[in-house]
Design brief:
Layout: E1 2-7, H1 15-26, E2 30-37, H2 39-48, H3 53-61, H4 73-77, H5 81-89, E3 91-93, H6 96-107, E4 122-128, E5 133-137, H7 141-145, H8 154-161, E6 166-168, E7 171-175, E8 178-184, E9 198-200, E10 203-205, E11 210-214, H9 230-249, E12 258-260, H10 275-295
Parallel strand pairs: 1-2, 1-11, 2-4, 3-6, 11-12
Antiparallel strand pairs: 4-5, 4-8, 7-8, 9-10
Amino acid sequence: MKIDAVFSGGGVKAYAFLGALEEIYGANLVIERVAGTSAGAILASFLAAGYSIDEIKQILKQLDLKKLLDPPKLATMIPGSKWLLLYFQLGLYRGRKLESWIEHALAEKGIHTFGDLKHEYLKVVASDLTLGRLVVIPDDLERLYGIQSETFSVAKAVRMSAGFPFFFMPDKVYGKQGTSIIVDGGLLSNFPLWIFEQHEPGKKTLKRPVIGVKLSESVEQTPPRKIKHAIDLFLALFSTMKQAHDARYISKSDEPNIIFIPVHEVETTDFNLSEQTIKQLKDKGRQYTERFLKRWPH
């Protein structure tokens, strides 16, 4: 059966997606169109480029997460200066190495811009702080910025979607209304399950079944957060905003089509994961997806 798939954000927790995909493909489901936010956008771009699950596993196996962290040069020369630079540059890391890694991986499959992909087969969610709105790339590029989607870099779009606020420096888009500051799509929609809906008079339809993979439990089952200092407060604010938006769009009728993978033991920006933790994430993704597929109504 052919399906469309939507992947949530979740930072390094996204290793759980690998176990989920193994089960999905093992059930003879064929993913056509893909969409995602942040880490989910990275995975979605690889699938849209034509990578198999085994190839994606190999790419991630060879990846040293810590090498994606690229602080400004001054921060490496003057201890403690990264917090001062954070004030002026709005992020601890530049994000160029992340974009370069994505760009190289996609280029291996001949993918550079959205014009190299099948039409409508990849949708990436980002947040435009300047315009104060959610942006779906490539759909909104021409309307909001006067940019032809066929010429826009897929790697750049994914990097913008994965620009976790204050961790990575915001990216910029130069459009017809001036310069827009773009950050993590999770700020406004961490799980864009709605993205493939087709609106007709009086109803919403889908071209094919959609499975969502979300790196958290349903809203009702989310455990209370412990807030001890300002960093905890910021993370709680960010998480609450993400959940509030997605809870507004995920109805009870949607939940049977969502694979909820609860990942509480790993922080979103923990770039020092051990091999054991990565294995546990994959196993958890596999476990919850297997349960889901046994009861999936389609």
